Amino acid sequence: MGIIRSILDTDLYKFTTSYAYSKLFPRAYGEFEFVDRSNGDYPQGFDQLLRKELEEMSALVLTNDEEVFIRKQMPYLPPIYIDFLKGFRFDPSEVDIWMDGNKLHVKASGLLYRVTMWETPVLATISELFFRETGQHPDLEYMEASAIEKALKMKEHGITFSLFGMRRRFSFDVEDRVTELLKIHAGKSLYGTSNVYMAFKHKLNVSGTHPHEWVQFHGSIYGYKMANYMSMEDWINVFDGDLGTVLTDTYTTGVFLRNFSKKHAALFTSLRHDSGDPFIFIDKVIKRYEELRVNPKMKYLVFSDSLDVEKAIRIKDYCGDRIGATFGIGTNLTNDVGNDIKGMNIVMKLFRCKMIAREEWQECVKLSDVEGKHTGSEREITLVKETLGL
């Protein structure tokens, strides 16, 4: 059995974004690239091992029980898209993998509604393979005690959180066990998980937001000044008010808040923080809601940037009764396994797109609220900054 054992072993936003592409941009193409932000070295032959894992994924099919689960728990996905998933097969020919010395390169290209599905499984596979091939093993006693301690502490402090840890998990088995322990010990503090398979297996809510790639695509197609506005408009058109959390930092939060209209403030229930100082973010967002004459006490902020329990408690206390706060905690839960093992700092981002096959590729960039999280060519990043006055 391969590392990825089900089509559902991925984050919710892969399905929702895939459906949104299929509905509005069914002929659009995209190209994703793997980025190791720590510029780490990989063992010789790692590319071949990864290739073998992705080839095994081509045999995965949506089971009848899984179909029943997503029809019931994900009503915002229409029957026509679920019928597509029943026939969907991963096509490894969409993915190029190679080594340059000890550096790993992965590129996935194809129709966006299909190729977006590679991102999360590829990252989870790379993470698990890396730890396996470098001979690193979890301290299971420490891992379980740590997960229980964190669950109880979040429950004590009234922290509402979801597990967002698939992409950089130590392994499938670790995520599976941590999910089980959180369900047992966190009580109602655990809202759910972004991993659809884990939600299916452990009978949890599925939770998630839209990804940076959705805004990046709109920036490339509609221009950077209109990217946030058009991406929100299209998300509303596709999901009609469901999935009401929006990312703010694709081209910096300051630019997003300029685009954030009263209509969007009313329709979206929450904003997601994913980079930069969370405390500055809280103050900026509350100020913007007040400018728009929208009561921030009726809204939520979702925090998901490199969180641990202590940081979540500080953020919740800072929000106080001014605005709601929920949390998506990832690597700190699914890769806190002792033995001095550190989670990998890896991502897979949209670097190019085009509306139809015969067009030239257009670059896609991401400008985070932190310089180190920017992705894209230096030339295009400079262009975006000049366009947006950054």
Structural features, described:
The structure is a single chain. This protein has about 400 residues and is α/β, with parallel strands linked by helices. It has two domains: about 10-135 and about 345-365, nicotinate phosphoribosyltransferase, CATH 3.20.140; about 140-210 and about 220-335, nicotinate phosphoribosyltransferase, CATH 3.20.140.10. It is about 45% helix and about 15% strand. It has helices spanning about 10-25, 45-55, 65-75, 80-85, 110-115, 120-135, 140-155, 170-185, 195-200, 210-220, 225-240, 255-260, 260-265, 280-290, 310-320, 330-335, 380-390; strands at about 30-35, 95-100, 105-110, 160-165, 190-195, 205, 245, 270-275, 300-305, 325-330, 345-355, 360-365. It has a seven-stranded parallel β-sheet with strand order 6-5-4-10-9-8-7. Strand 8 (about 270-275), helix 14 and strand 9 form a beta-alpha-beta unit. Helix 2 (about 45-55) packs across helix 6 (about 120-135), helix 7 (about 140-155) runs parallel beside helix 8 (about 170-185) and helix 10 packs across helix 11. The longest helix has 17 residues, at about 140-155. The radius of gyration is 20 Å and the shape is globular. The model has no long low-confidence stretch (mean pLDDT about 95).
